[in-house]
């Protein structure tokens, strides 16, 4: 069962006389309780009479709109002035990649990698040639053995 708050508590809320924790509780309660929402609206309406009256509404509205426009312009100017840091630019990344490439080339890293790759490829090619020769020799001997077996069988008959 939810607890309903009193009209006095809602007046204190409207007048900002509650601590932050209590304010949060009351705000959350407003989302789920229609009775308390009615009390809150009544407290706001009562406080409305205490506020000073606006003599010229159009002038007041124009002043507010000018302040909003000025604040937006200041925000745009600040965003334009804000520069990206040098290490966040594409040019910096390209320069860094070029410097790393030149460094690796000058130390011979790429040449060593290429030589190592060629050595591995030569080893694989020679191993393949040896295995092909072995297969050819094995097939030849197998064929010769088959012929000899056929001759022996013919002689037995």
From TrEMBL:
Q: Which domain of life is it from?
A: Bacteria
Q: Where are the transmembrane segments?
A: 91-114
- Keywords assigned: Membrane, Transmembrane, Transmembrane helix
Q: Does the keyword Membrane apply?
A: yes
Protein's name according to its UniProt entry: Zinc-finger domain-containing protein
């Amino acid at each position: 069962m939810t607890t309903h708050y009193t009209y006095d508590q809602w007046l204190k809320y409207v007048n900002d006389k509650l601590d932050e924790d209590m304010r949060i509780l009351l705000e959350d309660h407003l989302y789920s309780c229609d009775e308390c929402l009615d009390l809150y609206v009544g407290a706001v309406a009562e406080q409305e009479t205490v506020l000073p009256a606006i003599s010229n509404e159009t002038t007041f509205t124009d002043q507010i709109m000018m302040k909003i426009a000025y604040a937006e312009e200041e925000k745009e100017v600040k965003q334009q002035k804000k520069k990206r840091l040098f290490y966040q630019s594409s040019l910096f990344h390209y320069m860094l990649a070029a410097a790393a490439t030149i460094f690796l080339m000058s130390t011979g890293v790429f040449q060593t990698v290429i030589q190592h790759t060629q050595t591995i490829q030569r080893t694989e090619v020679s191993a393949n040639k040896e295995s092909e020769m072995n297969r050819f020799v094995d097939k030849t001997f197998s064929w010769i053995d088959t012929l000899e077996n056929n001759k022996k069988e013919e002689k037995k008959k």
